[in-house]
Amino acid sequence: YTFFLFNDLVIYAAGQPPSYKVHQTLHLSLARLRDFPGTRHHLLLSPQKTFTIEYPSHQMKQAWVTQLIRNIEGQRQLHYKHAIGVKGIDHDKSPSSSKPVSEAAAGTQTNAPTSSGEYETDPSLTSSFFNVENTKKLEEDQRAWVCKLCIRVHSTSRWGRPKPGQAPAGGVKCGVCKDIVCRRCASQTLVIKGEKAKVCDCCSGVLKGYLSNSAVMERSVNDNSILSIRSDWSASAGTHRQKFPKAESESKAATM
Question: Where in the sequence does UniProt note compositional bias of the Polar residues kind (predicted)?
Fold first, then answer.
């Protein structure tokens, strides 16, 4: 598989350029990392999918881990700012902007894994800040479900949760990735196989080409252990995305 890392997404696909078959799109705001020290692989955990990524070298692994941590924290910061605007969260709980998320250079690591192997992040930025990881609360409220894009907790009708594969009340099943998202996160309608279907904003951006321009991380010509980043901006999408087409890794199924 070939992995593509953006500032808000990880996409892995099979095939060769220019034709790829996308297998999964993961949202970094929901992800976390778990390391296997002394190896060339680590776990990428997400409610959407959890799998192991194995790298050709320790240097490439470190470069990816450093950038993944930076992007995950960045997305959680954005969700925090969005939550303040929507729900009026107490500004006193704001994550510290003076604390660096990651200052790791190639071959070094400042965000060390904990005793359980999981990388430390600013606790004020975790999804528990939005009361999402309170699984006991979600289990007690059988009508609650979480949108995978905006991480908001929603409640369905009094008849409880829908059957597997069905969209709950207030939810939309994306016609492309089949994920369940809220209506706010599925604002686009596209024609798929001759029929109109609601799609999540993430898939809409991919299909409309908003993710075509990106930055490329590639091996340095002079030193294969050093990775260099070239930056590019997508004016149509309005966001900065980073792409790592040369990091071909083995994807293995794993459980949470």
Answer: 107-123
